[in-house]
Amino acid sequence: MLISFLPHLVKSWSSTLWPMQSTSVFRTTTLAAEEKLSDLQLVATPDYPVAAGQSVNLHCTAFTMPDFVIWSWQRRENQTWKEVISERDLTLTEPEQSGTYRCSARSRLSQRESSTHTVYIISVHATVGENLGIAAFVFSLLALIISLATVFWLCWQRLGDTVTTSKTVAKGFPGPEKSPKGGLPNTNCDTDAYMNYTSTNQAYTDLDTTNMTGDNVYSSLS
Q1: 113 pairs with which residues across the strands?
Q2: Which region, left, alpha or beta, applies to residue 150 given φ > 0 means left and ψ of -120 to 50 means alpha?
Q3: By C-alpha distance, which of 106, 115, 99, 102 is closest to 74?
Q4: Which end of the chain is more exposed for a tag (fewer CB within 10 A), N or C?
Q5: What is the pLDDT of residues 168-207, one digit of tens each?
Q6: How far apart are CA 72 and CA 104, in angstroms?
């Protein structure tokens, strides 16, 4: 009776064990598929040398990757790789950050590294010739400003002298008087008067102001 029962026991145990093995194999296959990490690609923006102060962004990507991934960046120094940061993106701005970089990604079952990329950030310093050119430009600009200021000052002085002369003439020094009719000047002071005598009948003598009969009119010669 015991012998007849053994085949049923073995069959029952085999039926129970097979689903467990199938489930374990399925889970292992699924886990391996989920954790598969494809080759990494390093993307640099921009991918050419830049001047100091400009940014270079490095981005690491993969065609397929699991949900859990640890990203990191490494820089080559003295023929060895040293980790820089544990991020998916890396931004560089300083000349001393120039060098060769690569990104790395690690999942629970695999680890990948990207190809390398060299970053050039150029330090901009003025040369001796550029410094001399800048100094010459500054001195030229300064000389131009001084020249313009001098011309303006001279024009202002000349204009001030003209205005002062005009005011002086208007206040104390009247202009020449117009001669009255007859061509003789108007005399309002008690001084000797002289005139040109062109007559040939009588000899020229001084005019006597006591014999005046009107303005600038004399009755006789003295």
Answers
A1: 104
A2: alpha
A3: 102
A4: N
A5: 655 555 555 555 555 555 555 555 655 565 555 555 455 5
A6: 5
Estimate to the nearest angstrom the gap between the alpha carbon of 46 and the chain centroid: 23
The type of residue at 130 is E
Nearest to 39 by CA among 142, 134, 109, 113: 113
Two tokens at 32? 């391996």
Tell which residue, 54, 36, 26, has the closest CA to residue 110.
Answer: 36
- For tokens 């701005």, what's the residue? 93
pTM for the whole thing?
A: 0.45
184 secondary structure, DSSP code: P
Residue 164 C-beta-side C-alpha neighbours within 13 Å: 6
% helix, strand, coil for the chain, step of 5: 40, 25, 40
How many angstroms separate the CA atoms of 108 and 104, rounded? 14
Sign of torsion, CA 38 104 49 77?
negative
Count of C-beta atoms within a 10 Å radius of residue 57: 13
What is the spatial distance between Cα 32 and Cα 121, in angstroms, rounded to a whole number? 42
Give every CB contact of residue 84 below 8 A, 6+ residues apart in sequence: 72, 73, 74, 75, 90, 101
